[in-house]
């Protein structure tokens, strides 16, 4: 079996080797600037009073003249500075086939393998370079593994990664970090209409943070999931920014939301029940929620359900919530009016299925937008490496040298 998530938090004194295994794998079944990117390191003390949330206003990228735009989701490329060549090929062919107006790198872009600051930059650059070369706008959120190289004393915190990206990549839309909220990759993006200087659609980015602390409220975390959560101040920021956007533009802006670690509701969607994990309940859930795609491992949620889904239901502007983290889950469905789903794991350098099928589910996810259609968002589909003629033989095929740094 291939390596999976560790069940132990990674600290600056400890990186995640490629062989760490994850427990509980199931064998079954053109764009706005980012506004209000807010954050402090996950696990920090509660934030001070946040700056009042404001809607995004600048919209430098717009829908095409035909009123259409595509978003491409890439997640869990999760490799060293010697990225598997097929990961890069998959990104290149997805870009060339789909011609997206926006790319979202949805967390765990690298792993803990880089041993120096330069290698961290090279690992990111291998993934970013194909996007930049094509002049496509892009933004990223952080996953739980993006800071793992701190265990090798690289010094590359998320703050330093964002600062470096700002300096060298002109098509990146991640703004400067406001230290008043948890995380380093929260933001609102608006996509300008082809017909008027106003938004036709939006994208929300959240930092789902990294690992839960070992003790909470003076008690051991044992029995809870290992991962951090989207904190209450982030949920409040979303609610306030959503309200401010509606007030500014006189209507709710239909949107998609992206972050790395799934919500508890991603689990509930598959099983059709809040507290059970009985595969026998899935058939009814699949019919009720229109579930398509595959599930081969547990839904590795944060320790708490902090209420983001409920806030989105209350606001009524989010049409879909898409995550990564669980590389071999690809399913999606309509959970009480909000789509919940996964993008498939894009990277060949991390765990996949077992044996000869190791890389069968490597892929990306495509989202179709049409401002002439009701609700603008018209659907999503997976794009697998095998669909693009890319080798899916088991094992690694690492590049000999990283791409040149900008």
Summary tags:
five-stranded mixed sheet, Purple Acid Phosphatase, chain A, domain 2, 21% helix, globular, 406 residues, single chain, 13 strands, alpha/beta, 7 helices
CATH topology call: Purple Acid Phosphatase, chain A, domain 2
Strand content: 15-25%
Count of strand segments: 13
Give the N-terminus to C-terminus distance in angstroms.
Answer: 37 Å
- Domain count, please report it: 1
Shape: globular
Instruction: State the CATH superfamily name.
Output: Metallo-dependent phosphatases
Helix content: 10-25%
State the major sheet. Answer: 6 strands, mixed
Average residue pLDDT: 89
Rg computed from alpha carbons, rounded to a whole number of angstroms: 20 Å
The helix-strand sequence is EHEHEHEEEEHEHHHEEEEE
Q: Structural class of the helix and strand makeup?
A: alpha/beta
Give the C-level CATH assignment. Alpha Beta
CATH-defined architecture? 4-Layer Sandwich
Number of helices in the DSSP assignment: 7
Strand order of the largest sheet: 4-5-8-9-11-10
Low-confidence stretches: 7-50
Pfam families: Metallophos
Protein name: Metallophosphoesterase
InterPro entries: Calcineurin-like_PHP (IPR004843), Metallo-depent_PP-like (IPR029052), TAT_signal (IPR006311)
């Amino acid at each position: 079996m291939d390596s999976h998530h560790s069940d132990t938090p990674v600290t600056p004194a400890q990186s995640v080797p490629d062989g760490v295994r994850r427990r509980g794998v199931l064998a079954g079944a053109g764009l706005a600037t980012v506004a209000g990117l807010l954050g402090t390191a996950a696990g920090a003390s509660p934030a001070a009073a946040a700056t009042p949330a404001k809607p995004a206003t600048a919209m430098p990228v717009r829908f095409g003249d035909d009123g259409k735009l595509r978003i491409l989701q890439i997640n869990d490329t999760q490799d060293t500075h010697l990225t598997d060549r097929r990961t890069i090929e998959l990104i290149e062919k997805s870009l060339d086939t789909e011609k997206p107006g926006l790319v979202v790198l949805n967390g765990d872009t690298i792993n803990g393998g880089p041993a120096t600051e330069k290698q961290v930059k090279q690992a990111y650059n291998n993934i970013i370079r194909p996007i930049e070369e094509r002049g496509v706008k892009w933004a990223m959120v952080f996953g739980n593994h993006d800071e793992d190289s701190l265990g090798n004393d690289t010094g590359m915190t998320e703050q330093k990664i964002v600062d470096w990206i700002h300096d060298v990549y002109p098509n990146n839309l991640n703004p400067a970090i406001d230290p008043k909220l948890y995380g380093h990759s929260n933001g609102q993006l608006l996509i300008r209409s082809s017909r008027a200087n106003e938004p036709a659609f939006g994208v929300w980015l959240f930092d789902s943070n990294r690992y839960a602390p070992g003790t909470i409220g003076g008690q051991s975390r044992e029995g809870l999931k290992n991962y951090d959560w989207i904190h209450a101040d982030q949920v409040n920021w979303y609610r306030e920014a959503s309200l401010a956007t509606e007030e500014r533009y006189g209507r709710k802006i239909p949107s998609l939301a992206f972050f790395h670690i799934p919500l508890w509701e991603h689990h509930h969607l598959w099983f059709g029940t809040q507290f059970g994990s009985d595969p026998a309940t899935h058939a009814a859930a699949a019919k009720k929620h229109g579930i398509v795609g595959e599930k081969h491992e547990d839904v590795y949620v944060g320790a708490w359900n902090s209420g983001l889904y409920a806030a989105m239901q209350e606001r009524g502007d989010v049409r879909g919530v898409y995550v990564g983290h669980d590389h071999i889950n690809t399913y999606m469905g309509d959970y009480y009016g909000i789509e919940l789903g996964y993008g498939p794991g894009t990277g060949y350098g991390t765990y996949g299925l077992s044996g000869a099928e190791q890389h069968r589910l490597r892929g990306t996810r495509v989202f179709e937008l049409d401002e002439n259609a009701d609700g603008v968002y018209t659907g999503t589909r997976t794009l697998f490496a095998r669909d693009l003629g890319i080798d899916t033989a088991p094992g690694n095929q690492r590049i000999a040298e990283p791409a040149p740094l900008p």
